[in-house]
Amino acid sequence: MSIASLSIASLAAPISRAEKSALILLTLSQIVLFLVPITVLGQAIGWPASLRLPAAEALPLIARNAMALQVGYWGYLLTAVAMVPFVIALRRHALAHGAGGLLVDAMAAFGIAAAVLKTLGIVRWLIAMPTLASLHAGTTDPALRLIIEVNYTALNGYAGSVGELLGVQLFSGFWLVLLGVSLSRMGWRLNGLASLALGIGFVLNSLRTLAPELGLLSAILPPLGLAWLLMLAGTIWRKG
Questions:
Q1: Percentages (nearest 5) of helix, strand, coil residues in the chain
Q2: How far apart are CA 70 and CA 226, in angstroms?
Q3: CA–CA separation, 202 vs 171, rounded Å?
Q4: Per the confidence metrics, is the pTM higher than 0.85?
Q5: Alpha-carbon dihedral angle through residues 71, 77, 79, 83, given to the nearest 10 degrees
Q6: H or E element in which residue 48 lies
Q7: CB-CB contact of 83 with 110 (8 Å)
Q8: Which residues contact residue 167 at a Cβ distance below 8 angstroms, ignoring those fewer than 6 apart?
Q9: Is the Cβ–Cβ distance between 177 and 87 less than 8 Å?
C-alpha cells in the first residue's frame, strides 16, 4: 500500500473519544471567543456599528478606549486563529463519516482562507488604528488631523474589505455551504441545512456593496451563527 493510501485510510478511520472532545471544545471556543469582542467592544465603542463611523468620530472614540480596543480585538483575533484547527478537525470528522473526495478538501481550503483573511483584517485594529488615533488626539493642527483621517479611511476601507467582506462574509460563506453539503452526506441533515442556509446568508451579505439592502443581514447573521455552532457542538456530542 502506498504512503498516500495509508494517509487516506488513517483520515477515514473512526473518530477517537479524544478527537471528538477536541472538536467539541474547538466548536465551543468559537462561541466563547466571539463573545469577547461582542461584549468588550460593544460596550466600549458600540462595535460593530462603530466600524462605519466617519474617521473624525471614530478616531477620538478609539483613543478614549485604547485598552478595551486591545482586549476586544485580541479576542476577535483568537477566533480567527482558532478557526484553522476547527476547520481541519471538521475535515477529519467529515472524512471519517464518509463525506470524502474533493468536497471536504475544498471546504477546508475555503475555511482556512477565511481565517487568514479575517486575521489580516483584524490586525489593523491592534497596530495601525491605535497609532492613528493617538496621533489624531495628540495634535490640534486641522491639516494634520485631516491627513490622519484620510489615512484611517483608506486603511479601514481596504483592510475592512479584505477582512470583513472576503474573510468574514464571502469565504466563510463558501466554507459554510460546502460544510453544509458535507454534513448532509454524513446524515446530519438538520445541521447541514442550517449550515447551508447560513452560508448563503453570508455570501449574500458580502454583496452588499452591490445591493446595500443586503446589509440588513449583518444584524441577524452573527446570532444565528452562534446558535448554529451550539447546535453543531450538541450534534457532535450525541452522534460524533
A1: 85, 0, 15
A2: 23
A3: 9
A4: yes
A5: -160
A6: none
A7: no
A8: 80, 113, 114, 115, 116, 117, 118, 119, 120, 121
A9: no
C-alpha cell at 20: 471528538
Dihedrals φ, ψ of 101, to 5°?
A: 85, -165
User: Which tens digit of pLDDT belongs to each residue from 1-28?
Assistant: 333 333 444 455 677 888 899 999 999 9
DSSP sequence for 173-240:
HHHHHHHHHHHHHTT-HHHHHHHHHHHHHHHHHTTTTT-GGGGGHHHHHHHHHHHHHHHHHHHHHHH-
Q: To 10 degrees, what angle do helices 3-11 and 66-96 make?
A: 110
